[in-house]
Amino acid sequence: MPDVYDVLFRTLADPTRRALFERLCREGEQTVAALTAQAGVSQPAVSKHLGVLKQAGLVRDRHEGRQTHYSAQLGALGPLIDWTSQMAGFWEKRFDHLEELLKRMDQ
Amino acid sequence: MTELRPLVIEREIPHPPEKIWRALTQPHLIEEWLMTNDFKPDVGHSFNLRTNPKPDVNIVIDCKVLAVEPHKTLSYTWAAMGLVTIVTWTLTPTSKGTHLRMEQAGFGPGQGQAYAGAKYGWQKFLDNLERILVRPD
What we know:
Strand order of the largest sheet of chain B: 1-7-6-5-4-3-2
Largest interface: A-B, 37 and 38 residues
Shape of chain A: elongated
Order of helices and strands of chain B: EHHEEEEEEH
Strand content of chain B: 35-45%
Strand content of chain A: 5-15%
Strand order of the largest sheet of chain A: 1-3-2
Oligomer: heterodimer
Number of helices of chain B: 3
Number of strands of chain B: 7
Radius of gyration of chain B: 16 Å
Mean pLDDT of chain A: 85
Largest sheet of chain B: 7 strands, antiparallel
């Protein structure tokens, strides 16, 4: 499990890579050419970033003719959801403590 | 499809907002339900939340006050191990007391900064958090 977080955060820590992933999340499937047009970096650089995202399971590629289309795989963000639920447990407990404190403040 | 949302915890609490506000903003009271701290209800004030759930576990959370509206809203950043989130408390008076809402937002791919350098931090934070959650108290 720790490896999953490691890969996920290392992959998304790069701003250019993260921007590519965000764009795929927002706008759906895109070709490398379309992504390059707005990425502000060269096509080889975009392809390299997409390769890293693919290895992390964050995107999937689909070949059609000479074009490669990429789409976001949001399921790969699952570990973050786990973190959210863990954090929810943390806060529920704090709320319990807060309510206990409020009762004591009455006395 | 998985969606990332802010974490929201809400409760109806049978105490008036003024009293809950004290518990949320007075350091010696915050310590009783959250962590030791040097909080001040001043916008821009930086403070730490600290806890030692076990002798070998020392958790420090860096915070900065973003918004203070007495008895209504309190908001601060919550940075731990490279992950930055924003915690916002909202108090709404009800006929029986207060509707207390806590929102923690900022962990999503759209939050940029939150991910930078989070590699080690996340794991450590999660490990630590797990230890807190299982501690008998």
